[in-house]
Amino acid sequence: MEELAIIEAPSVLGLRPSGVQDLPVALLEAGLVAGLPAVRAGRVEPPPYDPARDADTGVLNPHGIAEYSVRLADALGDVLDGGRFPVVLGGDCTVLLGNLLALRRRGRPGLLFLDGHTDFYQPSAEPNGEAASMELALATGRGPRLLTDLEGRGPLLRDEDVVAFGFRDADESAEAGMQPLPPGLHALDLDGVRASGAATAARRAVERLSVGPRTGFCVHLDVDVLNDAIMPAVDYRQPGGLTWQELESVLGTALAAPGAVGFDVTIFNPRLDPDGTLSARLAECLRRALSARTRTGNAGE
To answer: Which of 79, 127, 265, 275 is most buried per CB count within 10 Å?
Structure first.
């Protein structure tokens, strides 16, 4: 049975200190790992938050994000070296950069990107300079070199090694000035997921990421991929989204795959969930999906 290693990554350097930094504690207290073979693998504290937009890059906290990404990658590296499966609890979506850096040090990673937004802004178009709205662009090499060439490794991802899954912001974001996803990146919006069914769409996404020269893929979850009616505890709300059942099916399929090598959860804001109801429901959904991983015994495969 493969052991999970929980890393707390409460960084809001790419967003703002709105409450997202409380995600790790809220989910763990809600029973995220109850009954699962899991160990606590530490907490990576971010550097101080600077609310001033960087003049050179147009991004909030770019140097802090770069530094934090390296330290988070080190923590993931220790977990991977120990043969455990890393589960990173953010934080905002920029924690993805550290996760990918750890995998990029080891080869050519893929990414299943579950997010209600495509997060493909450039700094000139992002109104607040928030890197949490541009992390997929940064990970594929588009943006300031400080964040696209971490440790001189160039893009953390190739376009063809990404599946963007379940987003529903394409028209709205294009009007706001976000660049479109590149043609080489496989994009499956919410309508596309629904057209084939979440389970089938997830299986096809995993199959795509499991072939070729990739050295495994990670799964990124921004909880705003869920329907706003059932998950309002996020900072940027929009109508529609996946159901709890659909998300559990997608995550269970992805995490059970032998090629999956890591998982992160971001953007849930416990301060918008005062009675803890959403924390408990999210923890239950994630616990069930992670149990699919531990049941498969993928360690060493």
So the answer is: 265
Contact 27, 286 (CB under 8 A): yes
What 8-state DSSP symbol labels residue 164?
E
Report the amino acid identity of residue 72.
L
Separation of alpha carbons 136 and 232, rounded Å: 23
How far apart CA 100 and CA 111 sit, in angstroms, is 9
pLDDT tens, residue by residue, 7-40: 999 999 999 999 999 999 999 999 999 999 999 9
Contact of 227 with 243, CB cutoff 8 Å: yes
Comparing CA positions, the residue from 98, 103, 109, 90 lying closest to residue 71 is 98
Q: What is the pTM of this model?
A: 0.96
Tokens encoding 163: 């599946």
**pLDDT tens for each residue of 121-142:** 999 999 999 999 999 999 999 9
The Cα–Cα gap between 295 and 44 comes to 28
Q: Residue 283 and residue 286: Cα distance in Å, rounded?
A: 5
